[in-house]
Amino acid sequence: LFGQLLLHSGGSNFFNDIALATMGRYRGGAAKISVVASGMFGSISGIVVSNILATGVVTIPLMKKTGYPPHLAAAVEATASTGGQLMPPVMGVVAFVMADFLQISYGAVVVAALVPSLLYYIALFIQADLEAARLGIRRVEESQIPRIWGVLATGWIFVLPFAVLIYTLFALNKEAEEAAMYAAGTVFVLGVVLGYRGRRMPLRTLWRSIVETGNATVDIIMISAAAGFIIGILQVTGLGSAVTNFLVKLGGTNIVALLVIAAFLCIVLGMGMPTLAVYAMLATLVAPSLVDLGITPLAAHMFILDLGMMSFVTPPVAIGAYFAASLAGAEPLKTGFAATRFG
To answer: What pLDDT does residue 179 have?
Structure first.
């Protein structure tokens, strides 16, 4: 609900504007705008295709206009949007499932994801800069770049809800659901009273956001039920334990070897599946073998989530890369391989 209200009140426009204002004047600025905007939007969305649709319709044409080949423009957007699943403070539904699976607080998952997500986007940012230098990509035209203070003057209404969310989560130690409701209420009030760029959010948007949240919840329930069915079969048949024992035996006492094997399995098993289903399966099949070799449970689960979500940009089944390619008019498989290189 928080993400839906933020989206309908103009949050995606604010993220694109602030990314354009801060990165547009630099070399390869269009790709850097994509990285920043997708990271910010992904922090409240956590859904790859939605992220690409919200930011890619702006950033992909902008990258193509400044000189990026279509497949590279799509690859940057797909990789940046995929990382949104790992970006605090919302991270998508997987973070809630992980917290429940490990019997820890949602805040602990958020803290654990902070450094990996920042490193992910820093690495992607550097690659975007190096690619721009190699291709001689020009900057975004000055006329298209808004003034940062002008963006912040009207967009502060989107900063406050994040502050409320973080404060209630960590300072007041509230449950994630309660903290999200406080943040959603803040977005709604500010959106209705003030709005972004002078466009106030109509009251009927609340009902629309609730309906869309309900639709998304139904999808999540169906995916969770299917994942639970698979996990139940694995546990009843003993296949899950067999796979764990096989991985431990294959990796021996070499943690690096086991991590490489586990990474390969994470990407292969995750192909074509929603992130939640990927995580549920990997948490049952792969994570126990990592824990058996002394890796802490939270680190093991963050590892499989990080690798599992890369299935969105890894051919032959790379849903995120192919969706971005359709927006860019690029060859899907070529986009997928470029996105894999960036990721």
So the answer is: 78
Of 30, 52, 51, 59, the C-alpha closest to 128 is 30
- What φ, ψ does residue 165 adopt, rounded to 5°? -60, -50
- In the numeric block, the tokens 């639709």 are attached to 215
pLDDT tens digits, 229-255: 766 776 677 666 676 667 667 666 678
Q: How far apart, in Å, are the Cα atoms of 152 and each of 26, 112, 198, 213? A: 20, 29, 13, 28
Q: How many CA atoms lie within 13 A of 270 on its CB side?
A: 30
pTM over 0.85: no
Report whether 102 contacts 299 (CB < 8 A): no
Q: Would you list the domain boundaries of the chain? A: 2-201+318-342, 221-312
Task: Say whether pLDDT at 86 is over 90.
Answer: no
Helices (H) then strands (E): counts for the chain:
17, 0
Q: Is the separation of the CB atoms in 169 and 179 below 8 Å?
A: yes
Going by the DSSP 8-state scheme, the letter that residue 208 receives in this structure is H
3-state class of 314 per DSSP?
Answer: coil
Name beta bridge partners: 199. Answer: 196
Lowest-pLDDT range, 25-39, 102-116, 149-163, 191-205? 191-205
Alpha-helix residue ranges (DSSP H) falling in 136-167: 148-166
Q: What are the residues whose beta carbons fall under 8 Å from the beta carbon of 246, sequence distance 6 or more?
A: none
* Cβ-proximal residues to 69 (8 Å cutoff; 6+ apart), any chain: 135, 330
**Gap between the Cα atoms of 304 and 242, Å rounded:** 18
Q: For Cα atoms 278, 279, 283, give the angle at the middle one, nearest 5 degrees.
A: 120
Would you mind telling me the total number of residues written for the chain in this entry? 343
Tell me the two tokens of residue 31: 């790709």
CA atoms 60, 24, 127, 135: torsion sign = positive
